[in-house]
Amino acid sequence: MNSPAPEDTVHPIPPRTLTVAYTGGEERRGPITMGQANMIRCILRDDPTHINIHDVWPVPGGTSPEAVTDALRTLAVRHEGLRTTFPHPPGTAPVDQVVAAEGTFTVTVLDHTELPGEPAEYAESVARAARAGRFALEREFPVRITLLTVAGRPAYLALAFSHAVADGSAMAILREEFTELLAGKELPDLASLPPVDLAALEASPAGLRKSEASLRYWERIIRTGPQEMFAEPRGRRPGTDEEARQLTLRSRRGGRALAGAASRTGHPEATVLMAAWCALVAHRAGQDSCVTAVPSANRFHPRVARSVTTTSQDALLHLDVRVETFDALVARTWGAVLNAYRHSQFDSVRLWEMIGRVTAERGSHFGRDVVFNDVSALPAPLLGTDAQEGDGAEHELVWGPPQALPTRLLAFTYRTAPQLHISLWAAPSLFAPEEAEGFLSGLVLLLEAAAAGDVPMGTLTEVTGVRPAERGPDWLRLDGCWVSPDAVRETLGRAVGGLPVHVTGEPGPDGTEAADGGEGPADGAYGTAGGAPGAEPHLTAYIARGETPLTPEEAHRALTALIPAAGSGVLAPRRYVLVTDPPAGPDRSDAWRRLKTIDEGTGRGRQV
Q: What is 222-280 written as a DSSP string?
């Protein structure tokens, strides 16, 4: 279906609908790609306004409506993804895709005597409104098209796409080809694989080996890395959506600084920017490593570089920031990014099964807390009107509209030269407006310092003005994560039906204590999930079960069931000790230790 403009916009001329027929394609059928499976999983589960995507294509002056529809028809025939549907019985997820040889699509025409206020912003609002409503994967043309005209002359196309057939790069490719068609240019032959052929490549022996390697790579991170980047008292659990306003940085200062830092270190600008991003995120989060999703990473191979499909699978970067200087971090980032890119093709269903299994065994909840999407390699005309305005700004921060944020920190880098242009969405529970502004300004300050010379990592607060999270002495760093024993005790108490519970940090066998909420030792992320219970500093939970039949395994399962919705800083204890009654001093760990043990054990499953 096509969606009209927002309800509060008045159109002097009623909308009309054009039906456009296309023919000349090839009919095909085959399995879905890994990227399609990943997005379809989200489409069937998430709010359509979160998962559908949109774009605005300016139409050059003097273009006729017929030329616009002819160009759209040509794109539909040229790209199999636009002729693709996903048949499936109700209540199931598609496993196949069907490419039609011919068909129709509709264009809603909104004619105006003149466009309201800011025309580009108005067109953006029309496109965004069209994201509402779930695409019918089994039958609907995957693009909702609205043509905005003035006195019958086209001005903008406002489009909403099903994420099952397109991602941001695919939309940019289509926008580029649309513009070239209107200019009378002949499009080159397609060089990248269409979705059906891409799926066949993924299912080949080499493709399956690549997927298996990716799953192993992700599992190492999920088992040993921080489960929340922003684990702190004011944080919320991953999966708790917040509405965050867009904050856009346009900074020629930042562009000059990035170029200078890249020249001085001898590394590409993209690597330097990634290192600076990770350094500042880890510093703000008080972590020894940065785990960030890099969604645009999997178009680096020519086979998929210009495919009009969705390749939306994260590369997961896990960067240890425990180095002395920023230059050393930049050198480390290059290899870490390449490793993440190499492991960004996987069976998404199996990936989420693995994440569910591993987090249940670990007693955690992995959060996609940080997303960094660098699309600056796309040609500037492909980035849309929003990304091209304000080129002359020496340094400005502009607040934009809010949107639901299913993560904690999301950044899009649109340009790095001549200005650094980044849009940031930061969860308001973690970043007050001035803190979000300070974070982006701090990124520029770090790049300026790195352009002038090597920056000691211990000086990031002074250099950037960004301060680490405040946790207090009751927070501990255990198993690669920041943990609040009080939050664990409260959540475990609810999980076991209100039985008396005491949770305490235990040292490792060599007497090593967990890091507390202060700076902690340099190697902060103590241990991994791979050790035996008690091998590293860990949490022990004492439960006075009375006459209630309860085992350590049952306590662990009950706790892990609550963790996804629990407060920040909840990680399952490594060891559960069951006693009959609580001691006289229920707040004293030594009193609990003196009680007779009924049962003890770990809820943790298989370790690697």
A: HHHS-S-TT-STT---TT--EEEEEEEEEEHHHHHHHHHHHHHHTS-HHHHHHHHHHHH
User: Cis omega before residue 94 (within 30°)?
Assistant: no
Which tens digits make up the pLDDT trace of 215-252? 999 999 999 999 999 999 887 654 557 889 999 999 99
- By the 8 A CB rule, do 529 and 473 touch? no
Please, where are the H alpha helices in 431-568? 433-452, 460-464, 485-495, 552-562
pTM for the model: 0.81
Distance CA 378, CA 415 (A): 9
pLDDT of 44 higher than 60: yes
- What whole-number distance in Å separates Cα of residue 93 and Cα of residue 46? 14
Measured in residues, the chain has a length of: 608
Angle at 467 between CA 462 and CA 473, to 5 degrees: 125
Q: Which residues pair with 374 in a beta bridge?
A: 413
Tokens of 478: 């255990």
Which residues, 6+ apart, have CB-to-CB distance to 395 below 8 Å? 249, 250, 251, 252, 253, 254, 441, 444
Q: What is the pLDDT of residues 174-207, one digit of tens each?
A: 999 999 999 999 999 998 999 999 999 999 999 9
Per-residue exposure over 290-321, b if at least 16 CB sit within 10 Å of its own CB, e if not? bbbbbbbbbbeeeebebbbbbbbbbbbbbbbb
Query: In the predicted model, is pLDDT for residue 17 greater than 70?
Result: yes
Name the nearest CA neighbour of 311 among 128, 133, 171.
171
Span 371-385, average pLDDT: 67
Q: How many CB atoms lie within 10 A of CB 115?
A: 17
Residue 385's pLDDT is what? 43
d(CA 145, CA 174): 13
Q: How far apart are the first and last CA of the chain?
A: 49
Q: What is the pLDDT of residue 296?
A: 62
- Which residue's entry shows tokens 């196949």? 96
The span from the CA of 274 to the CA of 321, in Å, is 12
Q: Position 432: which residue type?
A: A
**Alpha carbons 322 and 335: distance in angstroms, whole number:** 15
How many whole angstroms separate alpha carbon 311 and alpha carbon 34?
Answer: 8
The tens digit of pLDDT for each residue in 108-150 reads: 999 999 998 889 999 999 999 999 999 999 999 999 999 999 9
- Residue owning tokens 């959540």: 491
